[in-house]
Amino acid sequence: MKKTMRILCASLLLLSLAACTEKDNDNDNNPASSGTGTNGDASVQFTIGTPSWEQDGHIYYATYDWTAEIKDASLKLRSFFDEGEGKDFSFGIGYAPEGVEGGRPRYFNGDKPENSHEIIAVNNDSTVFTIRSRVKADNRKEARAFVYLSDGQFHYSNLFYIDPAEAPQIGNGIAVALPEQVSHTATSITVESHFIGNITGPEQFQNASCGFVWCHESEGAPTMNSQSIDCTQSAWQNNGQRFEGTITGLEPGQTYNVAAWVRMSPDSEAKMSDWHSLSTQSGDNPGSDNWVSLVSLYPVSNSTILVTVTAFFNGNPSAVGVVYNNTGEPTTADYVYNALDHLNMSTGEHDETVQRIQVNADGSRTVAALISGLQPGALYYFRAYAQFSDGSPTIYSDQLSETTPE
User: Fold this and answer.
1) N or C: fewer beta carbons within 10 Å in the chain?
2) How confident is the model at residue 205, as a pLDDT?
């Protein structure tokens, strides 16, 4: 008999801002210029690197790759989603204009729609997280990196400045925006970007060229010596507002790091954007039109894990969600969470187990949901799955595992 899962109301798991405490650092008197360096408290060590910069008109954006290492073995990263504000405060970089401090918890007023915070790497025991934060730098700001942990507290890095005056390398020149995925298959990824900076007219680009570079995620950041495609013709067709290219010859179910580049003349140095990690389609049948991917697992409590699934399908699937067990390689004969039982794909209406719904540029959809009723301190294996009423075989993603806190 197929096992069923118990659902615990999300409102019982998520704390309000007013109820939270915070871990602060005392070494705030001499904040770092760009956040560079290692600091933290007894529980978390933060390492914050020098930002990369983008310019869009007169507005600058700073992108930081920073690391939070949880030193206390009893603690884990915990989800903190504030339903009243509709924002996830689990981790990020928050800021306030210089000399203007935000309310408690501090610096959350930096979390605005033009900013983004995403985990780009995590070690095997979920104690070291590398996070990419892109923040708007329209003036000099005081900032902190932060994480929310299972002790019910926010832990902060030392204070540092985000200062657009530190981006002289952009100046009044031309750069390119972070590449975004348009679509993908099992062996290709189509990406797009656009020029940013003070663009005065087409004469600036008479001798210019542009395109994308990429490498496998295991190789780190792509460089101009990585594999590359030229998309200059696409840029001219779109008046520089966007250019698009397709990276081919890739492997199914693999992740690649992709950056955009522009060279203003044949003998000039190429300028590169920051890079994005993008993946080809995966699943038991990666060449098919339908695919599912298990994106991430995050413990919310000792009995609840937040799962994120991305799926692409033609037609109407009868089930899309996750299967899980304690032994590995779960199937629909094990515990099952069918997201279609909890949300209406057409209207977007959903119950309290669904935390986020997103339609992606390539036509796929991402759903984040709470899986509850788990045993504390137990190891669980998860796979995303999809079923179809036309009799097609059930498809599964690769599996991920997570241990619930004690």
Assistant:
1) N
2) 72
The residue ranges of DSSP E strands in 177-252, in sequence order, are: 180-184, 189-193, 195-197, 209-216, 227-230, 243-247
Give the span between the Cα atoms of 140 and 165, in whole angstroms. Answer: 8
Strand (E) positions, 18-173? 21-23, 37-40, 44-48, 52-56, 59-70, 81-82, 87-88, 91-97, 116-122, 128-137, 141-148, 153-156, 160-162
What's 233's DSSP letter?
Answer: H
Q: With 0.70 as the threshold, say if the pTM is over it.
A: no
CB 311 within 8 A of CB 364: yes
- Cα four-point dihedral sign 160, 162, 163, 169: positive
pLDDT in tens, 294-327: 888 888 888 999 898 988 887 678 899 999 999 9
Answer yes or no: are the C-beta atoms of 75 and 195 closer than 8 Å. no
Residue 246 to residue 356: CA distance in whole angstroms: 29
The answer, yes or no, to whether residue 8 has pLDDT greater than 50, is no
- The mean pLDDT of 143-159, rounded to a whole number, is 87
Rg (CA), the chain: 22
3-class SS of residue 358: strand
- For residue 33, the model assigns a pLDDT of 45
Burial environment of residue 389 by CB neighbours within 10 A (0 to 12, 13 to 18, 19 or more)? exposed
Contact 345, 365 (CB under 8 A): yes
Would you state the structure tokens that stand for residue 313, as one six-digit string?
């399908």
105: preceding bond cis by omega (within 30 degrees): yes
Is residue 49 within 8 A of residue 157, CB to CB? The reply is no
| Spatial separation of the C-alpha atoms in residues 289 and 201, rounded to whole Å | 42
Confidence of residue 21 (pLDDT cuts 50, 70, 90): very low
Number of neighbouring beta carbons within 10 Å of residue 284? 15
Confidence band for 361, pLDDT divided at 50, 70 and 90:
low
The torsion defined by the Cα of 312, 313, 318 and 323, in degrees rounded to 10, comes to -30
Please state, in angstroms and rounded to a whole number, the distance separating the CA atoms of residues 310 and 295: 7
